[in-house]
């Protein structure tokens, strides 16, 4: 292979070659490992290597070791939730061919959250299994509603109409959720805290029931990589190349809904991860979804871990929920994307 410094070989070309992508994969994996170490060692109380290693071996003899033992499931949940949201965002952008697509912007997270709140307020729902199924149902119904509204009128489901329909659905769902919560003082405190989105208080007992849904969603999404590459060419071109467009979109959407629903059930609605991460990955590995999807999962985990750590540091001795931190990071990126792409080009 020609060296990166050779004439005619640009940095972008190297970055998107197989060798460059493998290099970036190793870098991302290293960053993920470092982020995990930072997450278990830094917070409202800093701990040393000896305490970290002791806690990993199952010892909780000291306060610092007990702190690490509490942070370990929190770190695992941050990795899982970030990976799920990053992957779901990449899939949604591929399905809709919309650079602004995101589980939060398209109203999927808001629909899942509203369904969970309805289950708690009106049906006395308490178990995590019930939360999972209800959140997934709400996410699926919200995604179908947004796509149906965005498909009305001339031109079908254009990226701009989908973004507008998703934004309207998200606002409406949030307003209805608030209207349900306000008269219920018995559940208002816990639900409002959950609605912000966070990974605090995580436990392995709470994470385990989510794994089957996340694994199935992961499989559906990763298997859709080739179909998303074809859909990027347009529906007519994809059909001409042998893709079953409706089936391809449906299968990828099922995977994204499973990931969003399960993550929202355990963490609450966390926004902007699915928007920011795929754009970062395109800068690293190009537009091939066979690379974008796994990179989005890894990078999403890194982003959510670092956001969680930042939330612990900036609000010492208290903590700032990760959903607030991701909003601070994601909002400027959203504005930048809109400025880079004229509205008529969406």
UniProtKB/TrEMBL annotation:
Membrane topology per record: Multi-pass membrane protein
Main location: membrane
Keyword set includes Transport: yes
TM helices/strands, residue ranges: 22-42, 75-92, 104-124, 130-150, 162-182, 202-223, 253-277, 289-310, 322-338
GO CC annotation terms, alphabetical: plasma membrane
InterPro entries recorded: ABC_BtuC-like, ABC_transptr_permease_BtuC
Family of this protein: Belongs to the binding-protein-dependent transport system permease family. FecCD subfamily.
Record-linked CDD domains: TM_ABC_iron-siderophores_like
GO BP annotations, alphabetical order: siderophore-iron import into cell
Pfam family, one: FecCD
UniProt-listed PANTHER family: FE(3+) DICITRATE TRANSPORT SYSTEM PERMEASE PROTEIN FECC-RELATED, FERRIC ENTEROBACTIN TRANSPORT SYSTEM PERMEASE PROTEIN
Descriptive protein name: Iron complex transport system permease protein
Locations listed in the record: Cell membrane
Annotated GO MF terms: transmembrane transporter activity
Organism of origin: Puniceibacterium sediminis
Keyword tags: Cell membrane, Membrane, Transmembrane, Transmembrane helix, Transport
């Amino acid at each position: 292979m020609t060296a990166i410094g050779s004439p005619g070989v640009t940095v972008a070309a190297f970055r998107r070659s197989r060798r460059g992508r493998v290099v970036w994969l190793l870098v991302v994996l290293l960053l993920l490992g470092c982020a995990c170490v930072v997450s278990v060692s830094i917070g409202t109380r800093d701990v040393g290597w000896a305490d970290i290693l002791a806690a990993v071996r199952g010892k909780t003899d000291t306060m610092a070791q007990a702190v690490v033992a509490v942070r370990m499931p929190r770190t695992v949940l941050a990795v899982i939730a970030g990976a799920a949201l990053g992957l779901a965002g990449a899939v949604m952008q591929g399905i809709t061919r919309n650079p602004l697509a995101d589980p939060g912007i398209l109203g999927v997270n808001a629909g899942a959250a509203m369904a969970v709140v309805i289950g708690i307020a009106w049906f006395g729902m308490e178990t995590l299994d019930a939360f999972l199924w209800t959140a997934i149902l709400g996410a699926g119904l919200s995604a179908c509603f947004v796509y149906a509204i965005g498909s009305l009128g001339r031109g079908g489901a254009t990226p701009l109409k989908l973004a507008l329909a998703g934004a309207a659905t998200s606002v409406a769902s949030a307003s209805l959720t608030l209207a349900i919560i306000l008269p219920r003082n018995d559940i208002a405190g816990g639900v409002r805290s959950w609605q912000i989105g966070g990974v605090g208080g995580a436990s392995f007992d709470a994470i385990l029931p989510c794994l089957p849904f996340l694994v199935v969603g992961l499989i559906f999404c990763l298997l859709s990589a080739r179909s998303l590459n074809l859909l990027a060419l347009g529906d007519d071109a994809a059909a001409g190349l042998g893709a079953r467009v409706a089936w391809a979109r449906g299968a990828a959407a099922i995977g994204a809904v499973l990931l969003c629903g399960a993550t929202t059930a355990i963490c609450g609605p966390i926004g902007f991860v699915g928007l920011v991460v795929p754009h970062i990955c395109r800068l690293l590995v190009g537009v091939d979804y066979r690379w974008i999807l796994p990179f989005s999962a890894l990078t999403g985990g890194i982003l959510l871990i670092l956001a969680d750590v930042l939330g612990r540091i900036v609000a010492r001795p208290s903590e700032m929920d990760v959903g607030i931190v991701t909003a601070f990071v994601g909002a400027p990126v959203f504005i930048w994307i809109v400025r880079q792409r004229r509205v008529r080009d969406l």
